[in-house]
Structures are given as structure tokens and as C-alpha cells.
Amino acid sequence: MAIDTLYQEIQTEIAKYPDRRSAILAALRLAQTKYRWLSPEAFEEVARCIDLPVAQCQAVASFYDMYFLAPVGRHVVEVCTNVSCCLVGAPDVVAAFERELGCALGETSTDGAVTLRAVECLGGCGWAPVVSVDHRYLEHFQPGDAAQVVADLRAAPAEEH
Ligand code: FES
Questions:
Q1: Averaged over 63-76, what is the pLDDT?
Q2: What is the pLDDT of residues 77-128, one digit of tens each?
Q3: Cα 83 to middle of ligand 1, angstroms
Q4: Ligand 1 pocket check for 121: Cβ under 6 Å
Q5: What distance in angstroms lies between residue 48's CA and the mean position of ligand 1's atoms?
Q6: 12-61 pLDDT, tens per residue?
Q7: Ligand 1, atom nearest to 82 Cα
């Protein structure tokens, strides 16, 4: 996505609202898609388009799990570690991914393939534990499922975030 394209896409979002600042979530999403994470350049571009201070854009982004404030791998695995998922084994799921990836929660595997994150409730409490793989939800996830997921991701092309 060229810079002008991102600018135009953000302008399209801004046009949907009576106040241009209301488009900030969509603008952050578009910028993250372009840069793969919300880099300083991404924040500057969003701030310029929305006409808000960079710090305010950063404050909004830091509230939501779906925005990446640091570089991520080609794929992102997010384990819900909120109450319902924890009660039925989310910590064991996290441990299984850490073993398979050779990295800790919040880190990216050394081959750059997968970033492992913990997130708050994904809205699937009735199907816990829930794991999001590149934004696709896997329900009733078991620790033994982690190895196949990691193998598939290592062989897959990068996903758009
Ligand atoms: S607590 Fe995990 S999906 Fe709600």
C-alpha cells in the first residue's frame, strides 16, 4: 500500500463520520495493515490524517489488544488468558506454545514466524479456551493442538494484520 493510498483510505473512513477524530480506530487498523505494526511512522501518519496529536493516537491504540505496538512475526497467535479460558486450561495452552515456539509470551520465535501474545476475553467464553491464529478463532483449544498449529504457520506465507 503506497503512502498516498493509505492517506486516501483514511480519508474515506473520515468521510463516514461527522467528526474526523471518530475514524481513529479504522485509521489505526489501516496503518497497521500497511506497516504490519503501529510504528512511529504509522502513528505520525494517522495523527496527520486525523488531525490529532501523536500521543493521543498512541493512547487510543494502547487500550486495545488488536493493535500491535511492537513488531510482530509473519503470524500472530493470541491466547485468551481471561477468567473463563484460564479456568479450563489457558495457562497450559500458553506453555505448550512457548515450548513449540521456543519463546516466551510476548515474544516472537527466533525464525520470525510467530509472535505469541496473551489477550483479554475474545468473546468466546462458552467455547474456552480460545486461541486466535491470525484473527481466526480456534475453540476448545488443547495444549496438544499447539504443535500442529505452529508447524502449519511456519510453512504458511505471512498474513496481513
Ligand atoms: S475468557 Fe476467553 S474467550 Fe472469554
A1: 94
A2: 999 999 999 999 999 999 999 999 999 999 999 999 999 999 999 999 999 9
A3: 7
A4: yes
A5: 36
A6: 999 999 999 999 999 999 999 999 999 999 999 999 999 999 999 999 99
A7: 1
Give the residue among 121, 73, 68 at the shortest CA–CA distance from 101. Answer: 73
Domains delineated in the chain? 3-61 (1.10.10), 75-155 (3.40.30.10)
Question: CB of 73 closer than 6 A to ligand 1?
Answer: no
Q: What is the pLDDT of residues 137-160, one digit of tens each?
A: 999 999 999 999 999 999 988 877
Q: Are 140 and 129 in contact (CB under 8 A)?
A: yes
State the closest ligand 1 atom to the C-alpha of 129, by its place in the atom list counted from 1: 2
